[in-house]
Amino acid sequence: MLIFGVVIYPAIELVRASTGEYSITGLRRGSNGVENYANVLSHPALGTVLVNTLIWVVAVVAITILLSLGLAQFLSKDFWGRRAVRWAVLVPWAASLVITSRLFTLIFDYYHGILNVLLTKLHIISEPVDWLGDDTWTMPSMILVGVLVSIPFTAYVLLAGLNAIPGEVHEAARIDGAGPWQAWRRVTLPLLRPALLVSAVLNMIYVFNSFPIIWTLNDRNPGYTHDTTITFMYKLAFKSADRDVGMSAAAGVFNVLLILVAVVLYLRLVKWREEDA
Amino acid sequence: MSTVIARPQAGGWRRARRFVLPVAGLLVAIVFLAPYVVMLLDSLRPGSEALQSPPSFLPHHWTLGAYGDILGDSRFQNWLKTSLLVAFASTAIVILVAIPAAYFTARFKFPGRTAFLFLVLVTQMFAPTSLVVGIYREFFELSMVNTYGALILTNSAFNLAFAVWIMHGFFAALPKELEEAAELDGNGRVGTMMRVMLPLTLPGVVTATIFTFIAVWNEYVVALTLMQDDDKKPLTVGINSYVTGYEQNWDQLFAASIVAIVPVVILFAVIEKHLVGGLTAGSVK
Predict the structure, then answer these.
(1) Interface of A with B in 200-219 (CB under 8 A)
(2) Which residue from B8, B66, B61, B23 is spatially nearest to B259, judged by alpha carbons?
(3) What's the pLDDT tens digit per position in B203-232?
(4) Structural domain count of chain B
């Protein structure tokens, strides 16, 4: 019931809105048929937005999973101060995304940002970089933040997966003469599959729908140069010259369909079965 | 047998790892904490210093002024109150509804169960951003805009699916015989669940609880739209007003952010052990 009220009903509203025509102030003027969909599909920025979304989702999810695999492996080892390290890894998760994003606008800032000072002092760069103003660096900067905030959840899911693998399995592999790398690839990785699956699917959904990072770090760009489908949709309704609730809703419907297709494709790719869930 | 696997470098590595691992751990911790150390330092300097050029790592003037400002600010107190209220209430609702739901889907093979579980996943795909217009209308018609109830209901619904998904695995992993035995001992269905099943699935319940709590604590878009009354906003929305086009109190923004992280970190610290055991225990069969 609750899910119906808060997810299904607004979803129906969304579809209804996507076929309506709205005035600048958001009043419904009447039905618009499929014109909103056509408008979205013919929007000049659509290509850029789709490419951005693809880069954003694939880069953040892939980098997050790779780094989290290593991190989980590391955190599963027993060493002095491990609890403290586990704690530290959790902090980006505990902090609100909105605040983390704002914090990073300050860290990345050309004039006031600490990142440029740090990198210059370490002689990694010879002169300050305009991380959020220079188009080549905007997306990588956003991805960096996206990865940072996605790792805690992912690493913890994988860590839990690792902990669930009985120790004897590793021993058996070693006795059979497998080197560490081989043992990891042939034994650990397949057993981690359910954990990898859960974290990959949830990450895909969350990263796809991630709003604050792109919205905040991309604040200065009036156009759609670095927008993903989710901020594109928001801008259509509230910020752009278009100011069109109907078009935004249509974009929202596309967005859900896109995620659905992406997740189904992914599940197909890894041959999901119900037992895995 | 064990001599077979001893490799020549193993002894050296064993000695080295005592130092290498903690040092590597320290580096990892630094990477993850660095941005938030910047935040902490910025909360300890006067607001104007955050925008100095060139920037400095350490404050020129150390001050706890920002903390005094926000803790004495009645707006901040209201935001904190809202956040605590909404987070605890939503989490309680989610857990109370999700436990029986997860139990049901795990125990009874009703037709379309796989479809149901997939549908649950699909509800996670709707971005709050795209639903927020519909949600706003719905609560507007119910004249519930600006009420805590609206925010609590929305947050509960958004997180219910995920909680069911997580707990489903835990219930499914419990042997059926256990339940039957408990019933033979004269426990009713509810009694069986409360006294036998629940304690055994505690890690699952804990995991779902922490996920829900964090998600609600950090929710932004819905709260931004539904709570327009300044003293009913939650922290995530409220504290942004410390830095706007007119006000530049970065020190207060960051001090408030540090305060907002504290409850979550404490919660983590208390249940960290259960969390690691619980995250996928249900999904690994």
Answers:
(1) 201-202, 205, 208-209, 211-212
(2) B66
(3) 778 878 888 898 899 888 888 888 888 888
(4) 2
